[in-house]
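Record 1 of the preview.
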Amino acid sequence: MKSLNFKDLLARYQSGERQFQEVVITQADAFQCDLRDIKLSAAVIDNAYLPYSNLSRANLQDIVIKQGNLCDAKLSNSDLSRGQLSGVNLSRADLRYSCLRRANLINCNLTGADLTGADLTGADLTGTDLTGAELSNVQMHDTCLVGATLFRASNANIAEARCDRTTVMPDGHYYP
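->
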């Protein structure tokens, strides 16, 4: 994997390049940047500070974000399958119709996120905060919600998800 400076990536993106697979970025620091349709599959980002950024339709398969703040980011129709996003702040993020199959979302902050139509099949959301999240038509087959908080989440259908007595349900009660 080759190392890439984030400012260089932005300059190359603005000149029309979209392919940045298998790169290592140590510091992605940009507020409200436009990275629509970017391809960062199998990339490693050590510190991603990208609040209010637009990553719609991005290919982020197998991405590793070691520390990150993507609050209020637009990630609709993006592919984050098998992504390693443990502990990332995705509060109020737009993840509508995104693919998060088998993604590691352990201890993420997804409060107020819109996950309408997202595919969370096989994803691990252990300890994740989904307070107030929109979960309409979310696919949750074999999704791990152990220790997750779904308090006041809308339209949560967890029938095929894995829960235990540490899972907080939308009504505030623990899973039976």
